[in-house]
Amino acid sequence: MIARTWHGMVPASRGDEYAAYLAKTGIPDYRSTPGNLGVHVLRRTEGDRTHFLLVPAQKIAVMVAAVVVSVALMLAFAGGILGVLMMVPLRRALIVKEHGILPYPEGAACADVLIAGEREKIAA
C-alpha cells in the first residue's frame, strides 16, 4: 500500500464550508481512482486557521504498474532512436557483403539509405 498526504488550510470561519466542499469533490475523486483503498480526512483548528490533512491509500501494484509502463515506454522510444542512429554507420562499417534479401524492415531501410548514398557519390 502507498499512502500519500495532502495538506491545506483555510480561515477557521470557513472550515465547515471547506469540509463540505471536500466531501463533494476531493473525496469522491480520490475514491474513484483505480486501486484506491480509502481516504482519511483529518481536521484541526489552530487559532484562526483550520488545517485539513488528506491521506489517500492506493494499492502498490497499481502504482508500480504505472511506473513500469512509463519506464518501458521511455526505453522503447530511446531504443528506437538509438537503433535508427546507429544502424547506418554500423552496417557500413561491419557488413562486408550483402546477401541480397533483408527480411527486417529496418535492415532494408538502412540498405536503401546506403545505396542512395552510393549513387550520390557516383553522380558527384
Protein architecture, described:
- The chain has 124 residues and is an alpha+beta fold.
- It folds into 2 domains: 2-58; 62-123, no CATH class.
- 57% of the residues lie in helices and 23% in strands.
- The protein contains 4 helices and 4 strands.
- Strands 1, 2, 3 and 4 form a 4-stranded antiparallel β-sheet that branches.
- β3 (36-46) and β4 form a beta hairpin.
- α3 (60-94) runs parallel beside α4 (105-123).
- The termini are far apart.
Brief sketch in words of this structure:
This protein has 124 residues and is α+β, with helices and mostly antiparallel strands. The protein contains four helices and four strands.
Helix count equals 4
- Give a count of the beta strands, DSSP E runs of length 2 or more: 4
Number of domains: 2
Instruction: Give the N-to-C terminal Cα separation.
Output: 66 Å
Low-confidence stretches: none
Shape descriptor reads rod-shaped
Order of helices and strands: EEHHEEHH
Largest sheet: 4 strands, antiparallel
Class per helix and strand makeup: alpha+beta
Cα-based radius of gyration, to the nearest Å: 29 Å
Estimate the strand proportion: 15-25%
Percent in helix = 55-70%
Mean pLDDT: 80
Structural topology:
Elements lengths: L1 E2 L2 E6 L3 H10 L1 H7 L3 E11 L2 E10 L1 H35 L10 H19 L1
Antiparallel strand pairs: 1-4, 2-4, 3-4
Helix pairs in contact: 3-4
Summary keywords:
124 residues; alpha+beta; 2 domains; 4-stranded antiparallel beta sheet; 4 strands; rod-shaped
